[in-house]
What does this fold into?
Amino acid sequence: MSASANRRYSQVGLDRLVRLKWLERTAYLVLAGNETSAVKTILQQELAGAFRSDNTGIRGSLDKTITILLKIWANVPRERHSLHSEGADLFSQLPRNNRIVLHWGMTMAAYPFWGAVATHTGRLLRLQGTATSSEVQRRIREQYGERETVFRRVRYVLRSYVDWGVLKEMPEKGVYGKGEPLLVSAPALIAWLVEASLCARSNKSATLKELLDSPGLFPFRLTHISAGQVASLSPRLDILRHSLDDELVILHEEY
It folds into this structure.
């Protein structure tokens, strides 16, 4: 793996709240054929009201938020072009409430930190039914290091999960419960989400069982899909027999 790729998986990146409605609007504008510069101008106008304050640094917050939104749906690197293109096709076919699957996958692919926080959150939810901010913080710091930026940015991601409706705040401060999971049954959408999940992994491989049951996909309930279906639906995914009852899925990125 190149040094730049290694940096991508060790970077935190997400330093602002990502509201689902903002991401939905960004995707709509991009997929409608607008140039990135035009999308940025529209978002600056439409989101400005959400950042009104006497604080002179708020303008920077707006610009940083838009940078994140554009990185997810507009400024996509070459190795993500096919994922983006297929996501765009699925976007036009899905009802709005189901597009969260696409936003989740594209956000993981652009910001692996989003997937890392989701994985630790999902594991805690499975173990005990709730997840606390302090527990997620501790596990993320073990992975990313004892940086002050890590502490703050985990908070942004958890707040984003609440905004998306995949987590719900419990009466006790800093404690989160799981939202109602969304059933994902379309094979094409499941295969796309499998590929997006692999984009967020530095080794670009995992068993099919691990991917379909990943705690990082805790907002969704995926129906069973065979390895053959996964491979047939994405030419960038290869399947190797891993054991008697499972297969290894490997992503070959485009460059």
In short: The two ends are 13 Å apart (CA to CA). The beta strands are 130-132, 167-169, 175-178, 182-184, 205-207, 220-222, 237-243, 246-251. The CA atoms of residues 116 and 233 lie 26 Å apart. The longest strand covers residues 237-243.
